[in-house]
Write a structure and sequence with these properties.
Blueprint (H helix, E strand, L loop, with lengths): L8 H4 L2 H11 L6 H29 L4 H27 L12 E4 L1 H5 L8 E7 L5 H16 L4 E7 H10 L1 H8 L2 E5 L1 H16 L3 H19 L16 H15 L5 H5 L5 H25 L8 H10 L10 H29 L7 H5 L10 E4 L2 E4 L2 H6 L3 H12 L2 E2 L1 H9 L6 H5 L1 H12 L4 H11 L1 H5 L20 H16 L8 H9 L3 H10 L10 H15 L4 H12 L3 H8 L5 H11 L2 H16 L8 H20 L6 H15 L5 H9 L3 H6 L2 H11 L7 E8 L4 E9 L4 H11 L3 E9 L4 E9 L11 H12 L5 H4 L18 E5 L7 E8 L4 H11 L3 E10 L2 E9 L9 H23 L1
Parallel strand pairs: 2-3, 6-7
Antiparallel strand pairs: 1-2, 1-4, 5-6, 8-9, 9-11, 10-11, 10-14, 12-13, 13-15, 14-15
Helix pairs in contact: 3-4, 3-6, 4-6, 4-13, 7-8, 7-9, 10-11, 13-14, 13-15, 14-15, 18-21, 18-22, 22-24, 24-26, 24-31, 25-31, 26-28, 26-31, 27-28, 29-32, 30-32, 31-32, 37-38, 37-40, 40-41
């Protein structure tokens, strides 16, 4: 019995005892269905008991992954062996088998390697000497029926030795599965013959082809799964996951003919500490996979948000230091994934040195290597160090090697990476304070045009955290929300990459404002350092902007910035969310919004720097975060603020802009009579002219023309400039009109991203909503008629929104893992004529309707709503007045409104959670 199981082997599956009990229970005259029933019942009970033993032992030892995978293998082996014995000795007994009636059962793939997660596939190879006989076919069929009845997911093939050699030569997936073959039961000499023939006739001499095939397969898998730092990784197939570790095993076994990785230490491929890192990464990732299977109750490889919380708890992580247990767990996960990448590079370098792996594609295309400086050489088209001792004599060389890599365009040789990683202690206070080191580091950011490449490699090797110790806490730090797609360090590097792309003029059309700002010239040192440090305060109890500014005050001078530059960096880090918040959470059509923002920014220099930083910050969140809606808001805020800073605050005067809007409307309606135009321009209050674009003024003019009190007029058209669909409504005004419109839109599944509502002097409501579908896109033209029809039915009372929405407002399972506290604030200073109510809470279907309905019940008039969504979190901002047209000055009234809003949020959350 094996001794490397997480629980005693006999407790998991006692094969001799079960065999005796099973065969005693089988009547000699029973037919096959009766035998199968008894076998399945017996093995099912044993399987259930064995799995419970393993799970309990694993719970007590949550990182005991290797012994757990061996235990599941032992349990599966026992069931397969007993099933074979029943099939050959009871169901299809053959006293005198011929030479052709031999059958060997072998485990292949992961099962063959002896590594099984709780719900792994059971991959079997049924091996026969020649063409399969009727007897062997019957045995295999009976075995499969029993195993399927045990609810095992069996992958199987029936082949001869010749078949295996032929198919393995044609298909590398089959060849890889057979590389991991393991004899289970049946005719042992046949299994031994396969093993011998595979190595002599198939594997030997094809090492290079196999390695290339595995690396191509890996690259394709990474392309499909996404980057290593995606926040919902695939534990098995993702970059830095188990499949990458398994690929190393396959290559090592194929090339070095060993399953024992410790032999690679003796051969000099791995250093002892690298071997230990390999084992640690393997244990950790297998533990995660096993816990993930057990938490899901099925085979599941995707570490989704809800599963992350469960797995973190199973592995013993706790909340501490202002961060959730799940965030600590995922930080460890990403660190192990990075370690796997480092180990892969080391092994591939070893293979290149022995010509087992081909040179990189770059080298095959460009035969001549670039010329390198003294102290460096080019090995397999990678930048290598000629003399380790000489290199380490000057600690600044640790930074210079990255500079040389950027200058030449070469990748750094893994042996050089090893040397750097093993000598990070050289990066001490003296080096951090060195003017030369500061100059080198800033040069990596500013001189060579691809700073993200140097930063990413420096980060993976630990150089970045050693040179800027304050950066260490955010390395591999996950932000547990649906908004951020990357870890904090990767987000930072992505932001710097986006800045570099703008500087290279690759985004002139997409980002005209940011591109022109950089073209006109800004302090690049300030901008790059501010982006590098903007999130450095994350992961603590304090506001990360405030803490980050305090850190920036110390770090910026240490990176060689002047006192004035350091002050600007500190300001940018402290206020790096200001422009985004103003654009997305406030009504930028309100002059006070722009005036307050201009007062905060003070100078055009800071406005320019903050605008570019904000664009890069939003784009660095994830590949789909930036859109035309955010772009339009930021451009509008930037241009209005720049005008105010350059021309004075009087440029924001509401009355003057209203006059311009009316003049523009007259120009756009040349066929209207003078009387009709006067009627239209005089029926609206001043905020209407300030709050909408002239295109909406034209739409509303046509909707209101000839309207009577029973009309409900609707205009729905795509607003391509904003990545949204604009829905305009004109109808008789009455209390709660905003809520009714929000309910109608919620019922059709529309997400409201912005809204304005105004009342005319003759008693009509004009409301404009910008909406997107469930995927965050404008509605396609062919969907608009149905959208319009459903909205009209709701407004006419044919559909009651409150009842109709109940089945629709459920949260998805993966979204239930998030904690989003509710914050409600009242601001009487941010607008001249409105109180601003900001509700920061968890997003869910129907939330806007619940909030606006609650405000309507409190006799609150909503003039506009601005909706900003950040994954599972939403900030709904309402510009409101009371029933007398006044701000909410009474604290008692504000407290009452807050209480009712919280009740509506809580009740809706209960519905959403089921």
């Amino acid at each position: 019995m094996p001794d490397d199981l997480i629980a005693p082997a006999s407790d998991i599956f006692d094969l001799p005892s079960l065999r005796e009990r099973l065969f005693a229970a089988l009547p000699s005259d029973a037919d096959e269905p009766a035998v199968r029933k008894i076998v399945v019942q017996t093995l099912s009970e044993a399987q259930k008991a064995g799995r419970a033993v393993i799970a309990a032992a694993f719970e007590a030892e949550p990182f005991g992954a290797r012994r757990t995978t061996r235990a599941y293998t032992w349990l599966t082996d026992g069931m397969v062996k007993l099933t074979f014995e029943v099939a050959t000795q009871i169901l299809h007994r053959l006293p005198n088998p011929t030479e052709g009636e031999r059958l060997s059962v072998m485990a292949v793939g992961g099962y063959g390697r002896g590594e099984m997660a709780p719900f792994s596939d059971v991959d079997l190879l049924f091996l026969t000497p020649y063409k399969i006989t009727p007897w062997a076919e019957s045995v295999i069929e009976s075995m499969l029926y029993i195993l399927w009845d045990l609810r095992l997911k069996v992958g199987h093939s029936s082949r001869t030795v010749k078949d295996c050699l032929r198919l393995g030569a044609e298909d590398y997936t089959i060849r890889t599965a057979m590389l991991e073959h393991r004899y289970l039961t049946g005719h042992a000499p046949l299994a031994q013959e396969l093993d011998r023939r595979l190595w002599s006739d198939l594997f030997e001499g094809s090492e290079r082809d196999f390695v290339e095939a595995k690396l191509e397969e890996r690259d394709a898998r990474h392309l499909k799964q996404g980057q290593r730092y995606m926040v919902e990784p695939n534990v098995k197939e993702g970059k830095g996951g188990l499949r990458d570790l398994q690929s190393l095993y396959w290559i090592i076994k194929y090339v070095h003919h060993t399953d024992d990785l410790s032999e690679l230490v003796q051969k000099g491929v791995f250093l002892p500490d690298e071997y230990e890192s390999f084992c640690k990464a393997e244990r950790f990732l297998w533990a995660v996979r096993c816990h993930l299977h057990l938490a899901a109750g099925r085979a599941n490889e995707l570490l989704t948000f809800d599963m992350q919380v469960d797995v973190a708890a199973r592995m013993g992580y706790n909340d501490r230091g202002g961060r959730r247990a799940v965030e600590w767990f995922m930080q460890d996960f990403f660190r192990q994934a990075t370690e796997v990448g480092d180990l892969t590079r080391i092994l591939l370098t070893s293979l290149e040195a022995t010509h087992t792996k081909g040179a990189p594609l770059f080298q095959r295309i460009f035969k001549r290597a670039p010329k390198v400086k003294d102290g460096y050489t080019v090995v397999n088209n990678r930048l290598a160090i000629t003399n380790d001792t000489a290199f380490l004599e000057n600690k600044l060389n640790i930074l210079r090697v990255f500079e040389e890599a950027l200058r030449t365009g070469l990748l750094i040789h893994p042996d050089a990476m090893r040397l750097i990683k093993d000598n990070l202690d050289l990066i001490d206070n003296e080096m951090q304070e060195s003017r030369e080191a500061q100059k080198l580091f800033l040069g990596l950011l500013l001189k060579h045009g691809n700073p993200e490449r140097a930063l990413r490699r420096m980060n993976e090797l630990g150089v970045l955290a050693a040179f800027i110790p304050e950066f260490a806490p955010i390395v591999a730090m996950m932000q547990f929300n649906m908004y951020h797609h990357y870890t904090v360090d990767e987000h930072t590097i992505q932001c710097i990459w986006h800045l570099s792309e703008i500087e290279h003029r690759h985004l002139d059309e997409e980002l005209p404002v940011a591109s022109k700002i950089l073209e006109a010239g800004v302090n690049r040192r300030v901008l790059y350092v501010a982006l590098l440090l903007h999130d450095i305060g994350k992961g603590r109890d304090e506001d990360h902007s405030i803490l980050g500014a305090q850190i920036a005050r110390k770090v910026a001078p240490r990176l060689g910035l002047s006192k004035k530059e350091a002050e600007t960096v500190e300001w940018l880090v402290r206020h790096h969310l200001l422009m985004s918040d103003m654009a997305q959470k406030r009504d930028i059509a309100d002059p006070r919004t722009v005036r307050d923002f201009a007062k905060a920014v003070k100078t055009k220099e800071r406005l320019d720097l903050l605008c570019v930083l904000t664009v890069c910050d939003i784009r660095g969140v994830g590949p789909t975060t930036w859109n035309n809606w955010k772009a339009a808001l930021l451009r509008a805020l930037y241009r209005q603020t720049r005008r105010a800073l350059e021309g004075g605050m009087e440029d924001l005067n509401r009355e003057m802009r209203g006059t311009e809007a009316k003049k523009l409307l007259r120009e756009k309606l040349p066929d209207w009579s003078g009387a009709d135009l006067r009627s239209e321009t005089s029926r609206h209050y001043p905020p209407y002219w300030q709050g909408l674009h002239f295109t909406a003024h034209v739409v509303f003019a046509n909707l209101l023309r000839g309207i009577d009190e029973d009309d409900i007029r609707i205009d729905i058209h795509p607003d391509t400039d904003r990545d949204a669909t604009r829905a305009c409504f004109a109808l008789q005004d009455h209390p709660g009109i905003f809520s009714r419109l929000a309910g109608a839109l919620a019922l059709v599944g529309a997400n409201v991203v912005d809204a304005r509502t105004f009342t005319t002097k003759d008693g009509y409501a004009t409301a404009a909503f910008w909406i997107q579908d469930a995927d965050g896109h404008p509605y396609e033209d062919n969907r608009i008629p149905r959208l319009r029809d459903m909205i009209r039915k709701t407004l006419l009372g044919e559909v009651v929104a409150t009842e109709a929405m109940k089945p629709k407002d459920k949260l998805k399972k993966r979204e239930k893992a998030f904690r989003v506290p509710t914050h409600i604030t009242f601001d009487n200073e941010g607008s001249e004529i409105f109180t601003i109510i900001e509700v920061d809470t968890r997003d869910r279907p129907g939330l806007l309707y619940d909030l606006t309905r609650t405000l309507a019940y409190q006799n609150i008039y909503i003039a506009s709503a601005v909706i900003a969504t950040y994954g599972e979190q939403v900030v709904d901002t309402f510009y409101v007045k009371d029933m007398f047209g006044l701000k909410l000055h009474s604290k008692v009234k504000r407290d009452q409104i807050e209480k009712k809003l919280r009740e509506a949020i809580d009740q809706g959350s209960e519905r959403a959670r089921g």
